[in-house]
Task: structure prediction
Amino acid sequence: MNGHGNVSIFLMTKQRLFLNLCLILLTSIFSLWACAPQSTPTPFRPPTAAPPTQPLPTTTPIPALFTPFPTPTITVTATSGPCTDNLSFLDDITVDDGTSFLPSASIDKQWLVQNSGTCNWDLTYRVKWVGGDPMGAVQEQSLYPARAGTQATLRMTFTAPAESGSYESAWQAVDPNGNFFGDLIFIKIVVSP
Result:
């Protein structure tokens, strides 16, 4: 064998040795990485409610990533004596006054109101037709249950009259004893073919 053959064998052996060392080094690094202790996630702990005697916070902190939102606390304050009923009209959600409809069209009317009294409205509270044309609606309906001080959406389905013209229907809230209270709510439409 000549000198070149020995050099080639020596270089191939050196290359194999280098590749084997690299392979051993990489295997060791991956083994160490796989065996390294992994971080443990912090367990979820729900927020605790404040004692009822403490006031609610006035600011809401911006939640950090993976931080649960605080649970809102509702405080009910007892009032002495009988409560008072009141309904305040806030806005027409659907069907503005003067909207035109075809004869006999179905009308979905919604009002935004506020229970501005101190009594909570339950299923014993009603809304009754008090004037104008009932336009096919049931003349006494349940008033949306709502706590004192909250807003509610009242919804009724009407049918436009068959004859052309301007029509109005007025409604008012009624307490469990049959007493009317609060603002009147209206629907005012124009029927035209």
Observations:
- The longest helix spans residues 3-35.
